[in-house]
Design a protein that fits this description.
The protein is of the alpha/beta class. It folds into 2 domains: 148 residues, Leucine Aminopeptidase, subunit E, domain 1 (3-Layer(aba) Sandwich), CATH 3.40.220; 322 residues, 3-Layer(aba) Sandwich (Aminopeptidase), CATH 3.40.630.10. It contains 13 helices and 20 strands. A hairpin with a 5-residue loop joins strand 12 and strand 13. Helix 5 runs parallel beside helix 8, helix 8 runs parallel beside helix 13 and helix 9 runs parallel beside helix 12. It starts with a strand and ends with a helix.
């Protein structure tokens, strides 16, 4: 499955068309019959309370879609409606195996036109690498007819969507193909393709760095761990100190000796490297669009299995920063490997550290699949900037409290801290654990809810969603604009 988005002034008569309109009078110049216009007006009247109504007309296999955006809401909300309308239209194109459509902007609004194209393209994704029968091999082409939409903006949007596709592919790959070593190989390939630098540490190097958390989780696996360092450092970077993004890379999580229950909870655990996928996708988008920001990505990677030397509750680990950790539950492993990455980030003296992790079921239970749980020590202005970025791309943040009261839940009687707090507030105690390993201003993003979904919603497909890529790209893009 692939897509292209390009500008054009000439639209083939036979292809499907999508019209952004202010009123139905505008359609009379585009070969709509009086009957069709009356039908559209009737549908608008029937759904007068609908925000940005969509009407679809079929002429055999050709689809004519008419969208009338509202104007009485904040722009980011209207843009999200356009993305969702685009996804809805794409579903109709898929049903007809219709690969080409033109977006005709009759409202002279580039942001809404691009948002509609974004929804179409994001919903065009599918993961069928392992299908041996008939594959859905549609190659979509979306034409934009709008003198106001710039080719460079189309190109930038395309690169970001391709980065989301990349992150989705990584999450959807099974561990039989994508273990920690293979992830390291792909990081090096992507570095060459997108233009950032990368280095992948092997187990011996990780041992020399004394990354006790990553090494401990890896003890039950037959596959060695890796630790990847990705860097984009353009000469015109607006930040003197780098931004560091770290992603949890548990390639498959059995829970270790604290085996996940019920058994069905194991079915999706290839997704436990969603944070790592988001970091790679973000680095690809930032580098491909040559944003003038210095960004470093850190990815600790291993699977969590039940091999003969697997860690058990009661073990004491010594982490990269020297802290000792009492293991209470081996299914609280993501924080162990991510802690070493956060500790390692200190060497860069970063301006800001952001981590992404499918860390706790507690976060998913709290807010479901529609938002990202956030917490940390970054100042309010950084939180506001992340909120704005999240609202802009509809990857919204819900900030959890980070009060000192929660520190008590990870105190250990025999070590510096323990890796599991109380059940209540579990997402926060997990964040508190991570906070012991980072000194710079820091934000923890728990993406356990939206990183992998069991049913398609709007432009997010079943499986890996690539959440975090558009959020962080928008955040860094806003930084570069300043």
């Amino acid at each position: 499955m692939s897509f292209t988005i390009r500008a054009t002034l000439e639209v083939p008569q036979e292809i499907s068309k999508i019209f952004l309109i202010q009123n139905t009078e505008q359609l009379k110049d585009f070969m709509f019959s009086e009957t069709e216009i009356e039908y559209i007006e009737k549908k608008y009247q029937e759904n007068e309370k609908d925000k940005s109504p969509l009407v679809i007309i079929k002429r055999l296999s050709q689809i004519l879609a008419v969208v009338k955006p509202t104007t009485d809401e904040p722009l980011e909300i209207i843009k999200e409606r356009m993305r969702r309308r685009g996804a809805e239209i794409l579903s109709g194109l898929k049903a007809e195996k219709n690969e080409k459509a033109a977006i005709i902007d009759l409202i002279s609004n580039p942001p809404l036109t691009l948002a509609l194209a974004e929804g179409l393209a994001l919903n065009a994704y599918s993961f069928n690498k392992y299908k041996t029968g008939e594959k859905n091999s549609l190659n979509y082409e979306f034409l934009i007819v709008s003198p106001q939409v710039k080719g460079c903006d189309i190109a930038k949007l395309t690169r970001v969507i391709e980065a989301v596709y990349l992150a989705r592919d990584l999450v959807n790959e099974p561990v039989g193909y994508l273990n920690a070593e293979k992830l390291g190989e792909l990081v090096l390939e992507y570095a060459e393709k997108f233009g950032f630098k990368a280095e992948v540490f092997n187990k011996k190097k990780i041992e020399s760095l004394k990354m006790g958390g990553l090494l401990a989780v890896n003890k039950g696996s037959i596959d060695p761990p890796t630790f990847s360092v990705l860097e984009w450092k353009p000469e015109n970077a607006v930040n003197s100190k780098p931004y560091v993004i770290a992603g949890k890379g548990v390639m498959f999580d059995t829970g270790g000796v604290n085996l996940k229950t019920p058994p069905g909870s194991l079915d999706t655990m290839k997704c436990d490297m969603g944070g790592a996928a988001s970091v790679i996708g973000t680095m690809a988008a930032v580098a491909a669009n040559e944003l003038p920001v210095h960004v470093i990505g850190l990815i600790p990677a291993t699977d969590n299995r039940l091999g003969g030397h697997a860690i058990v509750p009661g073990d004491i680990l010594k982490m990269h920063n020297g802290l000792t950790v009492e293991v209470i539950n081996t299914d609280a492993e993501g924080r162990l490997i991510l802690a070493d990455a956060l500790s390692f980030s200190k060497k860069y003296d970063p301006e800001l550290v952001i981590d992404l992790a499918t860390l706790t079921g507690n976060a998913a239970i709290a807010i479901g699949i529609h938002g990202i749980v956030a917490m940390g020590t970054a100042p309010q202005n950084v939180q506001n900037e992340l909120n704005n970025a999240g609202d802009e791309v509809c990857e919204r943040l819900v900030w959890f409290p980070f009060w000192e009261d929660y520190d008590k839940s990870i105190k250990s009687d025999i070590a510096d801290i323990k890796n599991l707090g109380e059940r209540e507030g579990g997402a926060i105690s997990a964040g508190k654990f991570l906070g012991k390993f980072v000194d710079a201003p820091w934000v923890h993003l728990d993406i356990a809810g939206p990183a992998y979904v069991m049913a398609a919603t709007d432009y997010r497909p079943t499986g890996g969603t690539g959440v975090g890529v558009r959020l962080l790209y928008q955040f860094f893009n806003s930084k570069s604009s300043k």
